[in-house]
Amino acid sequence: MNQKTAAARLEEKCKLHFGCPLNSATNQQAYKAACLVVRDILIEKNMLFQHRNVEAEQKQVYYMSMEFLVGTSLRNNLYNLKLERPFENALSAAGINIHDLYEIEPDAGLGNGGLGRLASCYMDAASSLGYAMTGFSIRYEFGIFKQKIIDGWQMEFPDDWLNMGEVWLQARTDESVEVRFGGHADEYMDEDGYHVVHRDYTTVLAVPYDMFISGYDSDAVNKLVLWSAKSPKSIDMGAFSRGEYAKALEENTRAEVISKVLYPADDHIDGKILRLRQQYFFVSASLQSIIARHVKKYGRLDNLADKAAIHINDTHPALCVPELMRILMDEHNFGWDDAWQITQNTLSYTNHTIMSEALERWNEGMFREQLPRIYQITAEINRRLVQELQTIYPGDVAKIEYMAVIANHEVRMANLCLCACHTVNGVSKLHSDILTNSIFRDYYNLDHKKFQNVTNGIAYRRWLCQSNPELCELLSSLIGNGYLKDARKLESLLEYQDDPSVLASLRDIKLKKKIALRDYISKANGINIDENSIYDIQIKRLHEYKRQLLNALQILHLYRQLKENPHLEIPPRTFLFAAKASSGYFMAKQIIRLIVAISNTINADPAVRDRLKVVFIEDYKVSLAEIIIPAADISEQISIAGKEASGTGNMKLMINGAVTIGTLDGANVEICEAVGRDNMFLFGMTSDEVEALWRQGYSPLSFVRANPALRAVLDMLTSGVLGARFDDIANSLLTNQYGVADAYMTIADFEDYVRAQNLVSETYKDAEKFARMSLINIAKAGIFSADRSVSEYANNIWHI
Ligand code: 26Q
Looking at residues 77-82, what average pLDDT do you find? Predict the structure, then answer.
């Protein structure tokens, strides 16, 4: 396609859909027309790709995830299809600026954070590498909430993304399936053997919507299938006629609420019925569709594991285990042992967290009531598991209970995955080691071959090439275009680490991106920041373990130092935060309030003007990250060691030339291996030291007593000097709440963090040295490509 054909297709869409020529279309209309043209191309490519896969009997991967944080698609698709220029020119000839259209597109925010974005990065990589992968999730009517900060408080507003985002979805109403909830499952025997009837259930209709996922310079276009819930009945006319309008709509509402909204929580569980219904809804619909497709093609199911790999993204889709058993046994007459073998050989599972409060458990009674047949199967899985464990570990009641799927009136989803999946993996070396050494140790001892590591990776063509074309232009001029398909080739950049003109160009590009972010912030926040200051950036979900609070305390310390010593020679610094807090997470919201208060206090203080600024940028999301990340000098990755499974923001920042200040946690460990200790700012306890300090008995007060500067900072939380008081935060650090004070050891790591921050300031004074560190980070970021991760999954787990 060239400019001329692009123009013709755009004209055609405009006329057909809006009854006007392109040059008199509104930007909204032009945006939709552009999306529709791109969608047509993708549909066609997808048909060809699918056809080839069917012919070749290609093994299919099904990626099951409650979240896909897609972000925007128009620019990504045009980039992947290499159509950016033709579209830009065709639109421009009609007086339309393509960048204005990019800005209209809402993010498809169908996820909370890392896990959801990872799923989207992997879809992109699979398409780029030519693997046949279908993603399955829910078509949430409202994605992750929009965040506004009002008087320092986070407020949540609905994210009505379908309004402009729906153009990417293609409804396939004719492929709807039924999902059953509630009722009773009766077992009986007759001359043909064992049977189950499920009766008195309620049905919810699952309607699939396809979103097409392109790959870079690739023939492959895959699909993300999003299920929408619909009531199979229209309204109850009897009730309506009696004037009971609400009642007439009740059943509709109960069904359709399932795909209404994404749960805005991460890393903690809440055990709500609706969440369980969401999980079963999308798992059952997806598996029914997978099995129907397989049977249609092969006419048999005993070869399912040869032709399909079903991947469970965290435990959220763990109901795949009993649901696949159900379909095989109840709908296709397999006996238990054969069904179990197929199930085990087909399913694999990735764990994304070691925090015990995030391990999903369901109340057994609720589970049974909502999903009676699934409960029966799960209970039988558990009965057989426990029986087997009793022969292996006779009398070891504690171990068997720990490994059981059902215990203490709870159904434990991680154990369900551990016993049923052929492979289980963690998402960074450290995380995988912690899994096998601690929470999953007993399963590891039982069958260590099951366990693998696949370190996370990112869709770097989005995070580098599309969000930072200026940097890519420089890279291409220096090392050619090979890195666009093989990220490891970025390493050739190392040749230029001592080339002053290359280092100067890197600095120029960084400055340009910093100016762009400055302008965004000036518009969005009304705060003016200095592009010549160090941009020090912490962007991620707000969580105590990620320790935004540690950063905030360190800023207060710096502020005090600057006030006390106005001649302190440090480069000016701008601390930037962006983060959403789960709506019910009290402490996280307090921390946002604190950061906003610090920002207000410091930015208004003439004594530190031009030297220190703090900004909380509201409504963090994929498209905002794409603006912030290229502008970063310093990447804050400061979680307490042992808690961040991997992190992926660290990788996105690194590949854009930011230097990490961080702990040896998650993938930071591997970043450090790649760049060497001299090219990042390491601080803090290791995960072993954290463990040891816990065992020995951690007392934050002893650290405070030994550090008067820290004491002074903590006093600022409660004295009111920040315009408000933060007693709850101070208490969480200093007094035993639920038996622990400072559960994330912020106080213990404070001193070393301040040391590392001072080193940042010192190092930055040598502009060339800092630029060299930045270059080395870019050059060494290639291993963190999602292409590498997905190849590892394909080779070692999915076997395609
Ligand atoms: C569970 C139950 C009820 C409601 C919500 C949830 C829920 C939702 C989302 C639990 C967890 C999540 C998301 C977790 C997540 O994003 N984990 C991150 O995964 C990344 C990709 O592997 C890692 O890089 C991060 O370290 C990890 O925190």
Answer: 98
How far, in Å, are 159, 274, 315, 790 from residue 65 at the CA level?
20, 17, 9, 15
Mutation to probe ligand 1, out of 266, 355, 687 (largest number of atoms < 8 A from CB): 266
What is the C-alpha to C-alpha distance for residues 288 and 281, in angstroms, rounded to an integer?
Answer: 11
Does residue 738 carry a pLDDT above 80? no
For 628-663, letters b (16+ CB in 10 Å) and e give: bbbbbbbbbbbbbbbbbbbbbbbbbbbbbbbbbbbb
Percent of the chain at pLDDT above 70?
100
CB 331, CB 367: distance < 8 Å: no
Q: Whose CA is nearest to atom 21 of ligand 1?
A: 115
Measure 541 CA to ligand 1 centroid, in angstroms.
10
Tokens 């190392």 correspond to 494
| pLDDT the model gives residue 157 | 98
pLDDT of 267 strictly over 70? no
Which of 759, 799, 280 is closest to 554 using CA atoms?
759
Question: Pocket residues for ligand 1 (CB within 6 Å)?
Answer: 112-115, 118, 263, 265-267, 269-270, 275, 352-353, 358, 360, 427, 456, 644-648, 666
Q: Are 251 and 224 in contact (CB under 8 A)?
A: no
Residue 239's pLDDT is 80
Q: Of 68, 104, 102, 143, whose CA–CA distance to 580 is shortest?
A: 143
pLDDT at 250: 85
Q: Which atom of ligand 1 is nearest to the CA of 118?
A: 21
Q: Whose CA is nearest to atom 25 of ligand 1?
A: 647
The model's pLDDT over 579-596, given as tens digits with 9 standing for 90+, comes to 999 999 999 999 999 999
pLDDT at 269 over 90: no
332-342 tens-digit pLDDT: 999 999 999 99
Phi and psi, residue 266, nearest 5°:
-140, 150
Burial zone of 104 (CB within 10 Å; 0-12 exposed, 13-18 middle, 19+ buried): middle
What per-residue confidence (pLDDT) applies to 271? 67
| C-alpha distance from residue 718 to each of 715, 722, 728, 792 (Å) | 6, 9, 9, 50
Q: Ligand 1: distance of its center to the CA of 326 in Å? A: 28
Whole-prediction pTM value? Answer: 0.97
Using DSSP, state whether 724 is helix, strand or coil.
coil
Catalytic residues: 352, 540-541, 546, 648, 652
Give the distance (Å) from ligand 1 centre to CA of residue 561.
Answer: 37
Cα(461)–Cα(379) distance, rounded to whole angstroms?
A: 45
How many CB atoms neighbour CB 562 within 10 A? Answer: 19
Give per-residue pLDDT as tens, 455-483.
Answer: 999 999 999 999 999 999 999 999 999 99
